[in-house]
Automatic annotation (TrEMBL):
Tail specific protease domain ranges (all copies): 42-235
Protein family according to the UniProt entry: Belongs to the peptidase S41A family.
UniProt KW keywords: Hydrolase, Protease, Serine protease
Single biological process term from Gene Ontology: proteolysis
Lineage: Eukaryota, Viridiplantae, Streptophyta, Embryophyta, Tracheophyta
E.C. number(s) listed in UniProt: 3.4.21.102
Entry protein name: C-terminal processing peptidase
Superkingdom assignment: Eukaryota
GO function terms (MF aspect): serine-type endopeptidase activity
Gene3D superfamilies recorded: 2-enoyl-CoA Hydratase, Chain A, domain 1 (3.90.226.10), 2.30.42.10, 3.30.750.44
Record's catalysed reaction(s): The enzyme shows specific recognition of a C-terminal tripeptide, Xaa-Yaa-Zaa, in which Xaa is preferably Ala or Leu, Yaa is preferably Ala or Tyr, and Zaa is preferably Ala, but then cleaves at a variable distance from the C-terminus. A typical cleavage is -Ala-Ala-|-Arg-Ala-Ala-Lys-Glu-Asn-Tyr-Ala-Leu-Ala-Ala
Length: 254
């Protein structure tokens, strides 16, 4: 397959998919220069391509009134694409300005997308040093601990809605918030997709997908094939959410 080497002269080797997507983005109609290598030992070609609108915002949000007089910031995240992080941050800040008391993050029917986007979104809710996820594999390079590196954007508990089509990056976000006592999960057991896979090119030009590792939750639970069990089947009262979060923190402290 073809491999992008540079974007506007910037070497992208070692950069995440989110970082590369950011370099490729720009105003509609403008151009970007890329260098592409064909195959493992193929020639390098330079191209100038015109940017066009391709990604739509995956974020829908609104302010709702609860029976207890509090205001709920409802956010639905449909997928983890190149716009997910920026648009989610915008939605959260806007809802806070509108007077949101707490957030409901709706991950139902979200089958995933860019895993790195999911990891970065989970970090928005976690304290510095808290674990987002573990990667587990036979090779040591796939045995890592991914942690948050800054203060959270919001500190209040979050209600995360999940169902049997909540998968992959969505499960990383849900488990990260749940296991760090930042959220309660409401709905159905999630799908259970937690494999790390890579495509290896064969001599005949075809490729084979190989599983090189798996994602595990901060509580060391294997996501793949198991999914994540919710705390509640239906939406709990806010005082019940606070009680659940407090009990979670007490158990973590021992």
């Amino acid at each position: 397959g073809d491999e992008i080497l540079t974007v506007n002269g910037d070497d992208i080797r070692g950069k995440s998919a989110v970082e590369v997507s950011s370099l490729l983005q720009g105003p509609n109609g403008t151009s970007v220069k890329i260098e592409v290598k064909h195959g493992n030992c193929g020639p390098v070609h330079s191209f100038e391509v015109q940017r066009q609108l391709v990604a739509r915002t995956p974020v829908l949000y609104r302010l709702e009134d609860a029976e207890n007089g509090m205001s709920i910031g409802y956010i639905r995240l449909k997928e983890f694409n190149a716009l997910a992080i920026k648009d989610l941050v915008t939605a959260m800040k806007r809802l806070q300005e509108m007077g949101s008391s707490y957030f409901i993050l709706d991950l139902r029917d979200n089958l995933g997308g860019l895993v790195q986007a999911g990891i970065e979104i989970a970090k928005l809710f976690l304290n510095e040093g808290e674990t987002v996820t573990y990667t587990v594999g036979r090779d040591s390079q796939y045995q890592t601990t991914i942690t948050a590196g800054a203060a959270p954007l919001v500190k209040d508990p979050v209600i995360v809605l999940v169902n049997n089509k909540t998968a992959s990056a969505s499960e990383i976000v849900a488990s990260a918030l749940h296991d760090n006592c930042r959220a309660v999960l409401v709905g159905e057991r999630t799908f259970g997709k937690g494999l790390i896979q890579s495509v290896f090119e064969l001599d005949d030009g075809s490729g084979v997908v190989v599983t090189i590792g798996k994602y595990a939750t901060p509580n060391h639970m294997d996501i793949n094939g198991n999914g994540i069990e919710p705390d509640y089947r239906s939406l709990p009262a806010w005082n019940e959410v606070n009680k659940h979060i407090s009990q979670c923190k007490m158990l973590r402290q021992g």
